[in-house]
Amino acid sequence: MSHIVPFRxxxxxxxxxxxxxxxxxxxxxxxxxxxxxxxxxxxxxxxAVSLCIEASLGKNIIGLLxxxxxxxxxxxxxxxxxxxxxxxxxYSVSSDLPVxxxxxxxxxxxxxxxxxxxxxxxxxxxxxxxSFSKLTEEAKGFDLIIIDTARSAMGDMDEVLDDPTxxxxxxxxxxxxxxxxxxxxxxxxxxxxSRGDEVNPTGGSGLSSTQSESKYHLYLKMNKDRLTLIHxxxxxAKERDKLKDSSPLKLQYxxxxxxxxDRLDLSTPxxxxxxxxxxxxxxxxxPEQSHSRKRKDVNVEKLxxxxxxxxxxxxxxxxxxxxxKKTEDIWDEMFSDSGGKAK
Length: 343
Fold this sequence. Notes:
- This protein is an alpha/beta fold.
- The protein has helices spanning 17-20, 44-57, 83-93, 99-108, 131-138, 150-153, 163-177, 189-192, 208-213, 287-305, 313-321, 330-335; strands at 23-25, 28-29, 33-38, 74-78, 109-111, 144-148, 180-186, 216-223, 226-234, 249-253, 259-261.
């Protein structure tokens, strides 16, 4: 069978991307792969959690869905967080969802529980019993696979020396599952510094070939004390759908910890929230509260991840100092009188 396709003007519509690629997010379709890039403690996993919910429900939370979104089957591979931590995180943020959306999310979302690296020295990732082969087989039928993170998935392999192998593996995963693959990835040390290297379409740490061939990069960063999201590469996205540095997508947290776009009107019924439409109680933190929450989360993660077992009093004091002021909760208003006693 010949693979030569003669060019014909009459076939232009047939081969148009909108007719040949099933897009999960604007610029990222099934069979393609991309990256979520960010520095340490910036919220890569929080963003991934929101994107899992967004794709599963077919409702904009971050705001990356195409014009005619569908509910998608989503698989999250939490190499870095582990099952217990990531399960608790999804359970917590889902408290912002109404019952019918929670049921839809349960139907469409799954976690992967085999945490053996996809690559390891001395083994062939293509062998039938490899971790990669098991994931590829079990992930068939999903529309979106999110891997947290590239470094954890690579095991004892090197991001520079073994980059070509990682690229071939990710291409094979996307191709054989027919799913879009999003990979969480760290920046280089220089890219995380205030006056360090620019984060550009070449991507983050190592994996230069894999990131170069990928056509979709999301970059999460702080910009003037606001958490923002831009595309550093979105080759196939329409111009109107690209998130540019000049007009980034600003993100904020809800009270349950869900990361959302501040462009969304959370008072409308189309946005998943269990709060009443006519309620004057916002589920969103103010920008100041959101920034304080982010600082607290960063410091907590530093405390947990530090290799120094001595009590870190400086970090603990910073956490206390940046706790957002207590605000009235909707349940407090419903069940408490002005004196603070239950009705």
